[in-house]
Each structure stands twice: as structure tokens, then as C-alpha cells.
Amino acid sequence: MKKGNPLALLPIIVFLVLFAFVGIKADDFYSMPAIVGFVIALIVAFLQNRNHTFNEKLSIVAKGAGEENIITMCLIFILAGAFSGAVKAAGGVESTVAFGLSILPSKIAVVGIFIIGCFISVSMGTSVGTIAALTPIAVGIAEKTGLGIPICVGAVVCGAMFGDNLSMISDTTIAAVRTQGCEMKDKFKQNFFIVLPAAIITVILLLVVTKTAAYKPTDLDYQFIKIVPYLVVLIGALVGLNVFLVLILGTIISLVVGVISGSFTMLEMFTVVGDGIMGMYDITVISIVVAGVISLVKENGGVDFILNFIKSKINSKKGAELGIAALASLVDICTANNTIAIVISGPIAKEISSEFDVSPKTTASLLDIFTSVWQGIIPYGAQLLTAASLAVESQTIAEAISVTPFDIIPYLFYPILMGISALIFIIFIRGKEKA
Fold this sequence. Notes:
74% of the residues lie in helices and 0% in strands. The chain has 21 helices and no strands. The longest helix has 26 residues, at 184-209.
């Protein structure tokens, strides 16, 4: 393996420092759009490594931006925007929220959306798709109950990361199992045992922080037909339909419902879909630029440096498991994509686990857990960027309230507790499971 180069991580450090500094200084993290920070990071990356010409660096960036997972993610963003625009224009958000609050006490509405998020993400195998489907509902619940939007959206992200980590059709799960050579069912059982306490405590914490929720029963009018698109998305996810099919089907049904209910005309339906897609332009462009930055960071030896550094610090089985956890965490922080992070760190993790007798199912679980922990927390990851973007777009009040990834982070109980649960497993339960 290459020795690696710590200076290759400079673009990421520049972005984090610059974005945080400007946001704190201006008391507004929208004062510098994220895309500007990433463009600056890209320029820094281009200025590094004189061994490559400008055209060679451009080629590296283009290949990274055009990577299959990145393009797939961008297509999901576009379809998610189309669905969001169509269902919102059809009145689906208001009716779904009103229906939910009419049958659920307001104090458990947010817990309900967390649990629904868990089921959808496990069924769909995608956290971004889950966030796209549920964030508008979460915003509606916030507006009806008087709770903060970040709390409700945070519950959605928590549920999304639950399934991203556990779903048998999730890219991260498949990558973790394949790189370690273990059975899917064994990894699932091991993983579920580790994260279950985190999910239970998350429910309790959400109940505590939303205990002041209140709403007026007279303000809960709804039309059941407008709820149908969300039911279709939920059922489609639960039966295991591909996320693309789920979002396309949800969009078509939303348009049909909107026309039938008189929310918009057949001619206007193209506009509502277009408006929804346009609302996802920022996150799509950001994802492409981030992929380009990461491709140069990797080419310049940033990821190799992290891998070598962690491997040099291991000298025991417990240390090996902690090392695998740190490896997965750092690579995900640098790549902002948990599937890519697992693919990159998986082979090294397998070497470490073989040398220190860590079972493949445990290694696969740790890789999946810790990449999901950070993917659900980093403010420049697709999950929080999508959630924040939709949280602003989905508001029905006259003047939308600004919502940034940093606003949501304090309420990401599940990803944080998932990491704590995994550390407890490593430190106190390590070695008790059979290989």
C-alpha cells in the first residue's frame, strides 16, 4: 500500500474550517452557500500534486463525479424532487399530517415518524430516498404541533440511518458483507443486536423532547385521497420495490390525485414537477463537486495516509476492532459516502480482522455501523444536505424559516447512540461472540 500524504486532506480541512468560521462569524450558516465552500476546496485540490498536469487532474475529477454511485444518487435526488413537488402541490403533505395527528396524540407524532422512517429505510435500502419521502411530512408536523422543524426532520434522518445500516438491500450492507465474506443473515443479527439499544433510547429521547407538542383539533381537516401517494410510497418500500420505481410511481399518483382533486390542472402538473426538481438542483451539484474533490484527495494519497496510520496503531483484538471503527469513520468523513467508504476500507479491515481473529460478521457490522454513524452526522453529507434543503422547500408558511444541517445535528440521537452502542459492544462484549 502507498504511504499516503496527510497534506492531501487539506481541501477537506479548508472546507470545514471555512464553512464553520463564516457561519459562526455571521451567525448564519447560509451566509456562505455550501457549494462555494466546496468549489474553494476543489481549487485547493487542483493546486496540489505537481506530478499531475491540470488536464490529468480534470480527468480524475470527471471520473470521480461520474462514478456509478454518485450518478445514481443524483438521479434519486431528481426523482425525489419531482415527487416532493407533485405531492406538495396536490395537498398531500397537509392531508397526511392532519390525518396522522388526528389519530395520534401529538406527543408521539415525532416518535411515529421515526419508526415509520425505520421501516421505510429498511425496506427501500436507501436513507436519501427515505428522507426525501418523509421530510415534507415532518415539516408539516412541526408546523401543526409548534415543534421546531429541526427536531422533526432530525427524527426522519434518525429513522433513515437505521435502515441504511440494517437493510439487506442497502448498498452499505451489501458492500460490508461482500468485502468481509460473511453471510448476510449473520451480519444482520450481529448488527441488530448492537444497534437495538440505540433505537430504544432514541424513542425515549424523542418522547422527552417533544412532550410540549400541542395542536388545535379544529385545524386538522384532510382528504384521504391526497394521502394515497404517501401510502403507495410506504407500501412500495415495504414490499421491496426499487427506490426509483417507488418515487416514479409516487410522482405519477400525486399528479393524478392533484388533477382529480382540482389542486392543479393537467397543464400545470409539468410546472409542479419542474419546481420540485429545481428545488434539488443545489444538492445535486454539490454532490457532483464533492465527488470531484474526494477523487483528488484519494489520488493524492489522503485516504492511504488514514489507512496506514490506523493500521500502525493496532496491537490487540480490541484494538483491532477499535481500529476498524476508526478506519471506517475517518474514510467516511473524507469521502462523505458510506458505501464508497466501506469499499475503500473493507480490504484493509479484512486484513486487520484476519490478523487479530475478529469474526467477519463483526467486522462487517462495525464497517457498516461506523460509516452510517458519520454519514448521518456530517453536515456536508447527502443525508443532511437533502434533509435541510427539503425542510426549507416543504414549508407552507409565507416566509420559510432557514434550516441548515447544523440546526438538525443536535437532534440526531440515533446515529450518535449507534456509535456509542457499538463502542460499548467493542469494549465490554468483545470476544464473547463466536466467529
